[in-house]
Input
Amino acid sequence: MLKASFGALIILAVVGIGFAGFRGDKMGHTPVEWFNDMAHQPKYEPQHRSDFFNDSRAARLPVAGTVPVGFNLKGRYFQTEGNNLVNGMGGFSNQPDYYNTGRMGDVYGDGIPDALAARGVELLVRGQQRYDIYCGICHGAAGQGNGVVKSFGLATVRPLVDDLLRAQPDGQIYHPIAHGKNTMGAYGPVIAVEDRWAIVAYVRALQTAASAKLADLPEAEQKKLQEQK
Ligand code: HEC
Output
């Protein structure tokens, strides 16, 4: 009995390897596909041809006048309200300087780039809007590390208002936005350079707010709050 089942096992293994083991090898005939693992799909890949279009190209040009998000087409297109990208620098530029990398040589630099810092409150408002869209789900609206995603199991989400991050230079806050860090994905492909800095500025504002005392507010604001009480 034992011998028989052992024999059966060997036969099964040989047949199994026969079916599955030679996938990817060169064959002189059309292979029989037992499990095609979605190898063939009704879709076009980049640079493929298509008989459907007259010019035989599967990839189509963007519709005339299309403005890629975050690209600077100053002079041709003006986006107004709520999107200051067009007035600014860069879009998704990618140069080795501080503005694009947050680094000065081998170390992180500090400070919001001058041209952006000059926007003052406008930059913070933009940063708040972008932060709420991209970061709040994980790091929480106030940066306490308690966003909704955390309750769905991403346990490693960290607060942005603790002493460690307060002590980091601005470039080191910028860097994970562009490139991600460990379990946090990169947002460089979707957040334009100047928006990343706007978010950095807003994270600084959250850090200040997290430890602010009433006396830190301008007097007019203090009065308002006291009247509300
Ligand atoms: C999908 C969830 C998620 C989103 C969205 C997210 N983060 Fe994170 N973030 C994380 C996690 C998780 C970590 C901890 C990574 C680690 O060190 O393991 C982290 C870490 C960080 C750190 C600390 C990096 C360090 O030096 O340790 C900063 C700063 C940060 N995030 C900023 C942001 C900003 C700004 C945004 C919005 C653009 C953002 N994060 C969006 C999940 C997220």
Remarks:
- The pocket of heme C is lined by residues 134-135, 137-139, 149, 154, 156-158, 160, 165, 172-173, 176-177, 181-184, 187, 191, 199, 203 (CB under 6 Å).
